[in-house]
Design brief:
The protein is mostly helical. Helix content is 54%, strand content 2%. The protein is globular and about 60 Å long.
Length: 312
Amino acid sequence: MPASRRSPHSAPTTKRAVMDSVGRRTARRAWTLVLAGLLGACATSAPSPEPTTASVAGMRPETPAAVPEIRPGLLAGYLGRNLPDSLKLLPAPPTEGSAAFRNDQAVSRASQKLRGTARYPLAGADADLAFPHAASVFSCALGVPITQQQSPYLYQLLRRTMTDAALATYGAKDHYKRIRPFVHYREGTCRPEDEAMLRGDGSYPSGHTSIGWAWALILTELAPDRADALLARGRAFGENRLVCNAHWQSDILQGRATGAGAVAALHANADFRSDMAAAAQELSKLRASGAAPDVDCKAEAAALALPIEGVL
């Protein structure tokens, strides 16, 4: 995978950064603190900036208003307390010894055959949720770069919806505390630096998949003519968690359901709808400018062409 896929100074993944803030406490306690911080931040949001000439005239400012951070680099989402409850939304994960779990095992073992191929470093890159790196994940599928400088509303939209889609998974994660495949098989993952945190973080459903599928749905709404490419990339983003040995297939499937639920809830939020309208205008201008993706799309396509045998 080309170096442009990752920022040399990128921060740890979002969940790992949260874990660092509480030392050796469990992921459940860490994300409970995060959720409490989110609710508090939403209740006492940062003051709005002074209105500009454009905003006074009823026009949208060129850059979005500042949003409070839950943690350094992690923005508050849109939903606050109105997150979907994944514990109510999803069935229980497959139990060991069941036919469904045997299928999870078969797909897990098939996914590990991709170690040493071009898909493995792409899976490692997809595991990194830090911005600005994470904004580039859908650049090839969208056909343009996503940067804070060129599309500030879209960039912030992705950051905020990441928080909502991730937090929506923790009702089920904390309840079931499912063991991850790399722990089950006593193996490693595509990102060894995340493994200590992942051991204490429930596998079901997949938070990365919820985030990636939410992003795919949002971007498809903004660029419906790119729907096939965007949805395929969103699916691959989640399935790369299989390649990373971090999740079972059933985690991925229900991660998509959680992400879709988060997006449905987001559409009831006026701030989200306003930011979507602004992002659509940015994207239209960006595409008209002829700006090209800032990643190696041929290399990405070659990596994604390597399938996981038996995946649903």
